[in-house]
Amino acid sequence: xxxxxxxxxxxxxxxxxxxxxxxxxxxxxxxxxxxxxxxxxxxxxxxxxxxxxxxxxxxxxxxxxxxxxxxxxxxxxxxxxxxxxxxxxxxxxxxxxxxxxxxxxxxxxxxxxxxxxxxxxxxxxxxxxxxxxxxxxxxxxxxxxxxxxxxxxxxxxxxxxxxxxxxxxxxxxxxxxxxxxxxxxxxxxxxxxxxxxxxxxxxxxxxxxxxxxxxxxxxxxxxxxxxxxxxxxxxxxxxxxxxxxxxxxxxxxxxxxxxxxxxxxxxxxxxxxxxxxxxxxxxxxxxxxxxxxxxxxxxxxxxxxxxxxxxxxxxxxxxxxxxxxxxxxxxxxxxxxxxxxxxxxxxxxxxxxxxxxxxxxxxxxxxxxxxxxxxxxxxxxxxxxxxxxxxxxxxxxxxxxxxxxxxxxxxxxxxxxxxxxxxxxxxxxxxxxxxxxxxxxxxxxxxxxxxxxxxxxxxxxxxxxxxxxxxxxxxxxxxxxxxxxxxxxxxxxxxxxxxxxxxxxxxxxxxxxxxxxxxxxxxxxxxxxxxxxxxxxxxxxxxxxxxxxxxxxxxxxxxxxxxxxxxxxxxxxxxxxxxxxxxxxxxxxxxxxxxxxxxxxxxxxxxxxxxxxxxxx
Length: 617
Fold this sequence. Notes:
Blueprint: H1 2-19, H2 24-46, H3 57-82, H4 87-97, H5 101-150, H6 156-207, H7 213-246, H8 257-267, H9 269-283, H10 290-305, H11 307-310, H12 313-317, E1 330-335, H13 345-363, E2 371-375, E3 382-386, E4 389-394, H14 405-419, H15 427-438, H16 442-448, H17 455-467, H18 475-485, H19 492-502, H20 504-512, E5 517-521, H21 523-535, H22 541-557, E6 561-565, H23 567-579, E7 585-588, E8 602-604, H24 612-616
Parallel strand pairs: 1-2, 5-6, 5-8, 6-7
Antiparallel strand pairs: 1-3, 3-4
Helix pairs in contact: 1-3, 2-3, 2-7, 3-6, 3-7, 4-5, 4-7, 5-6, 5-7, 6-7, 9-10, 13-14, 15-17, 16-18, 17-19, 18-19, 19-23, 21-23
């Protein structure tokens, strides 16, 4: 309750002080409070871990500016009305002038212009640039959060919190940009008030109080300089605190700016050595205060040779922490003796690029480049690991040509990937495909994943396509098909058939390049498969036996054959043939174009004694 009324009451008191005269002891208390609050803000800036943890900084700067301006009005009233303004102003004026009016005025002008031109103006510019860059980066950061959520890396609550933090950050830098203009205006107002106090005090002292010009100038300049110093020093501290906060580049896990500066500078050993050496050399120059140079140079060399001071904060936390390593998808384990068989890095990079491009164009897979690990094994055998498991090995001793050993090995790995393509499909590879498509079609990706299907469901769909050697290089067509289906039918088997219809050009091109002898199932048999697929029922045993007998004869008569049926029955027919160990491809009428679809097909079973009415039932 007290915190809720403290700030509003303080604002009302500050505004009232502009209109009502205050006693000198009250003004002294307010001046001391202004200085202490500025020191408190500077200390907060030094030990602040993240700028947004002090998100009230723009409001604090605004209230501090209002506070100082109200104090300037009160002190001006005391200086011009009474000829004195309390102990604080007189003490600071005498401290700065030190008995010399000109020196005091010059020093005060230097402090004022440093505050106005260097600190306030520089902080204003940094705040302006930070606000602009933060707003420019906002869409990209929001897309990154959405991508992480769709990939399942973060949950909905974490994504919501990250978006809120992002909004706070953008508003913080935007508000700070405006608040720094208040600070700059406060510096200008301080210069104007100082000039008014000197001119007004001189006029009042000569015309009203009857003082001579020198006496009036000395008395009122002393008070004005003391007042200006008590106003400009807190303003300088506030500007410095704001500048330190907005110029800091934060990283995750970093501490305060003071701790970070010390560790980063101390960690730069060459800089310590250079500064220490130059300091010791300056100590040899005649006439210089050699003891200062010697002391500082010696201190820098102590820091340079001290291992405890050169360690970063991360190194001080723990000597060595075990971190489990996730095996890469593909890894080459190369013995040291086999390294000469590999070409230069440029050639290896070119071959890997060609390898990945070939995989993507033929399957749609978007793999990460294989990793290479050097082993101290005495054998010269190069091992290929798939997710940490050895799947292939190549011995240079049995290679046809040692000069093309790497290229030949890569060709065998390519064959392994093509043969086992569905094992390479997981949520990570699917997410990589979506990220690549998101650069050109972000709306399409956002409308499908995770609105209609999740990344895991999409991975399952891609594995089903890869199982039947259907390329998903046109991932945009797959997402378009899913988007057109909508959330009404996301059952995996139904979704697969709908997507295959959307990929009819790809499937037709695949069929066109093969020599396949197609057959068609009897319409009643096709209908029976479709009904079993829809209801989840079982096929009649008589039908299973008859079809198995037909397919056995087809295997004996034909080398390559396939089945054409309806899309509703296709998946179950495929599973039936797979369970019967009949190597045949199954296509639906809807997923083949007219130029590929045969005009006349053999229908089975046709010449067999079959109770078709029972099948229809």
